[in-house]
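Annex B, item 7. Sequence and structure tokens for protein A, then protein B.
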Amino acid sequence: MLYVDIPSREEFSRLSDVRSDACISIYLETSPLHQKLDASQIQLGNFIKEALQQVAEQGLDKRRLALLEEELYSVLEDEDFWDLHARSLAILATPDSITTYRLANKLPNQLKVSERFYLKPLLRALTFPHSAYVLALSENQARLIEFFADVPPVEVAVQNMPSRKHDAMGEAALNDHHHGAVHYKVRLAQYTRKIDQALRPIFASHDYPLILVTTEPLSSIYRATNSLPNLTDETLFCNAEHLGASELVTQVRPLLENYYQAQLNALKSRFEARSGERRVTQDLSDAARAATFGAIDLLLINIDSSINGTIDDEGLISFSGSGDEVSYSIVDEIAKRAIATGARVLAVRSEDLPSGADLNAILRYPV
């Protein structure tokens, strides 16, 4: 399985506020396969040398330079750290601290040296659900499968989850043929309730979608006993006992696309309703001021926006032709400020926004 540890909203806000004489942002392609990590380590070594050279040429104090070098090499030379990885690695370092995140999405190798961290790749990881789950359920088999956009799916070992009805009910399940249909469904409900209880700890800290693959009457019975808000509305009706994880994921991907599209469609309806209340804006300047003063409730941003500049403490934008040590992505900064004040932020494709817009915001009160 992938070992993923994306930042929380609070961690992202904290990282966004960091200012230092040397902020090093490194993003590396990695692999969940240990034998394929040599190239990542070599690339990291090259990035470290390049970063140290850049900050030395910019006049970083020698003592601070030595501290930064120590922080960076502490990651490169930590053998235990390189045992478990996902698709990408983020390393964010100053002479005073270093933070790492293993990410499920595949990111290109890149190095940024500035007075602040480069966090766009983390913003995407934070706002995009990076995985989903399949619950393949029958009387004779219960499996939970985790899958990602570009990685083979894996079966997850779930503590205390019965792998079949007999495991949940013991010898009582063997005698069900002596009883009627009502008693049979009661047994199934006891089985599905135990599965639901076993899944709760896995989904307690995130909202990744859970797609049910089963047949009737188990589908209706499982949904009746389900307590997870992650469960999607659509069921893939088939007997999954003889389907491998990859084949299952291939069949459920259209349902996952339907799930995400339904969410976006619901958001579009919400934007339309709030527009009539003068609580919607696509204007960057208005959104920057609203984000600065905590007035954004929901924000959709274009993941490919590249408008650079700065936003001051009053939310006023100064546009710039390109990013440098001082300027940065305007949309990313608006998203950062919105997240810091409790807004829900989603990074989406341009076609999911109003034509020509780099963002779409619902405000907490009319303007």
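Protein B:
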Amino acid sequence: MNASISTETRGHGGPQAPRPEAPGRRVVITGLGVVTSIGIGVEAFTAGLREGRSGVKPITAFDTTGFAHANGCEVTDFEPGRWITRQDPEELGRASQFSVAAARMAVEDAGLTEEDVRARRSLVSVGTTDGESRDLDQLVAGSTAHPTGAAPEYDPTVARRVPAGRLSAGIVRELGLTDVEAVTIPTACAAGNYAVGYGYDALRSGDVDIALCGGADAACRKTFTGFYRLGTVAPEVCRPFDKDREGILTGEGAGILLMESLDSALARGARIYAEVLGYGLACDALHPVAPDRDSIARTIRIAHRNAGVTPDQIDFVSAHGTGTKANDITEAGAIRQVFGEQAMPRTVSIKSMIGHSMGAASAVSAAACALAITEGFVPPTINHRETDPECALDCVPNEAVEAELNVVQNNALAFGGNNAVLILGAYRSAA
């Protein structure tokens, strides 16, 4: 990040702020791919956000016998063969299937062909929490089912699917990319924003021409059990910022953003969802699971500075908003610390609809932010009854509101203090 600044007119509306001076290119989002429990693909996902649709249902991904409650937000209508055509879907774990499918959706949504993408220098950057832990669950279950001393027999197809690198490598293979860098980023529940930031840097510096970035995770027993034992799984629904909230619901899915330079998008007449203005990262490492208010506030300020915006320009915040007591109070406190008590932007959590999809969470939220900018609405925080006074936010309860949005903020907080905040802006042509 450069210390010097200069004033420059941006493509988004509203008052202009200083932006970091750099020779880099402007970066825009021209394609979206989403796999969620409230809709697969841009059209269905947008409708789900507008309607405040709930993806909650009893978990079927694993045997929930012995748990007092086991609701989640699973993707139940996903057909991998519809999207994965150049490789056998069974050679990929469920998270990789989500990732590959979302990438192909993003390419098609951007109006590009496989040949278009292959002809350019590209980056594939996918964030995740669990990788293919669903397959690891299966392998461990098979191992422990054997009598003591007996050698376990592993399904080699399942074993080959386990490496998390397949979440990005699967995209490369599916699209037949050769001039490409492929990375999988494991910064837990903030990994989607990390992956998008990585792509933004690569495009801005001119290292690549196209970036497919986001996150993916599949529901698994290991993660559900971990949160359950922490006492943070809600018995029925997720109620972020509500005084009666009881915790998270685990979810699954993927969000992949296709990004390119503004010049590239304009040259080919592409539809532009939003401009990536900047991002901020901070790892405080203060506690394994508890969020830190000051660290979150610092990350938000870094993101604002990197994007060249000021707090008064933020039209709404897509919060991490897990629905746990500690997270929501801490995150709300950090937002107040940055924005001030009298200038709080609307702050929503789409986890109330899709649950916590781990490494996919902030990538799916980034897609939601881009759609909100394009379509002119703020998605709701559903299941809401009464705002917790300790949060004191306008969480847009239960029903979406129409709004012209110029700059939006997407928060992502992860265990170990891995925080990532992404800033998107509306692109408005001078014509």
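Comment on protein B: The radius of gyration is 20 Å.
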